[in-house]
């Protein structure tokens, strides 16, 4: 599958990373999510197919793949990040630097329930 061009990146999303853990008073921790800079990120978002899962995640056991996201590379977008798109939160389950040069990246994101 070809990488979408910049003109095909019509979706605006926000990527967030967790801050420092804060005790929740019940023995666990919670996180405050912080938006990466820039806050709005133009990407291509599309539902994933079984073929996408096989191609992007070869050798990895994945139980569910929701969406494939492609955009400009950002070093802060990792599997610890999440994506907010149309008011819904997606967990980034895979982040791949497409050409290992830090130009574009492809993510696999799963809608959080």
Explain this structure to me?
The protein has 113 residues and is mostly beta strands. The protein has a single domain, classed as Bacteriophage SPP1 head-tail adaptor protein (Thrombin, subunit H), CATH 2.40.10.270. Helices cover 6% and strands 44% of the residues. The protein is built from one helix and nine strands, in the order βββββαββββ. The strands form two sheets. Strands 1-5-6-9-8-7 form a six-stranded antiparallel barrel. A hairpin with a 6-residue loop joins strand 8 and strand 9 (104-111). The chain is globular. The two termini are 28 Å apart. The model has no long low-confidence stretch (mean pLDDT 84).
Mind sketching the topology for me?
Blueprint: E1 11-18, E2 22-23, E3 29-30, E4 33-35, E5 41-47, H1 50-56, E6 67-72, E7 82-85, E8 88-97, E9 104-111
Antiparallel strand pairs: 1-4, 1-5, 1-7, 2-3, 5-6, 6-9, 7-8, 8-9
């Amino acid at each position: 599958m070809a990488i979408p061009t910049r003109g095909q990146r019509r979706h605006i999303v926000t990527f967030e990373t967790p801050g420092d853990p804060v005790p929740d008073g019940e023995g666990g921790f919670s996180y405050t999510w912080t938006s990466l800079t820039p806050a709005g990120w133009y990407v291509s978002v599309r539902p994933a197919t079984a073929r996408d899962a096989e191609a992007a995640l070869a050798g990895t056991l994945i139980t569910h793949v929701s969406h494939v996201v492609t955009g400009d590379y950002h070093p802060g977008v990792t599997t610890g990040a999440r994506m907010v798109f149309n008011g819904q939160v997606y967990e980034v389950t895979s982040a791949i630097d497409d050409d290992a040069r830090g130009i574009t990246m492809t993510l696999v994101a799963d809608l959080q329930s």
